[in-house]
Amino acid sequence: MDPEMTMLECEDSMTKAVEFAIHEFAAVRTGKASPGLVEGLDVHVHSYGSHMKLKQLAMITTPDSRLIRIEPFDSATLHDIDRAIRESRLGLNGSIEGKVIRLPIPALSQERREQMVKLVKQMGEEAKVRVRAARRNAIEELKKGEKDSIITEDDLHRLEKEVQAMTDKKIADLDQHMASKEKEVLTV
């Protein structure tokens, strides 16, 4: 494989791992209402016979800092959305009022905040594993290229350093996002 292509694929994989982690961090409760908390929730809609993301099924708003208001585009999906929220790992219970679900966000106890920080750290570590796997795959491809005489040994060492620098940058990026999310979770 072309070494430039290998480097591009490596960077793309690492970037996707970081972006996925950031998306996952958005779903972690901080004690403050945010549409990001529920918009990625998978909802099995019986009337459609498929799974859909909540943001595809409803308008999600936050009228104040302690409440999420979910208004389905199709009122037939109301109970499916309510069930998905109850079964999620968020630990929230909404109330159906007419054609709207009101989802109060309770204040987090210090113990629950610490559990959320552990969850953020776990998500961050999983993302770091994905970044390192991308590094490992890229280096294996580069070594294969050197073995097949596509690149020289000097090029191999230079490209390995570039891959490592890319890895270090993405991991530092993840650490920064983890630290800011931890701070957000621990702020009362």
Automatic annotation (TrEMBL):
Residues 23-186 form the Ribosome recycling factor domain. Its main location: cytoplasm. It comes from Prosthecobacter fusiformis. Keywords: Cytoplasm, Protein biosynthesis. It is found in: Cytoplasm. Responsible for the release of ribosomes from messenger RNA at the termination of protein biosynthesis. May increase the efficiency of translation by recycling ribosomes from one round of translation to another. GO terms for cellular component: cytoplasm. The gene is frr. The lineage of its organism: Bacteria, Pseudomonadati, Verrucomicrobiota, Verrucomicrobiia, Verrucomicrobiales. This is Ribosome-recycling factor. GO terms for molecular function: ribosomal large subunit binding. It holds the Pfam family RRF. Belongs to the RRF family. It comes from the Bacteria. Signal peptide: none annotated. One of its GO terms (biological process) is translational termination.
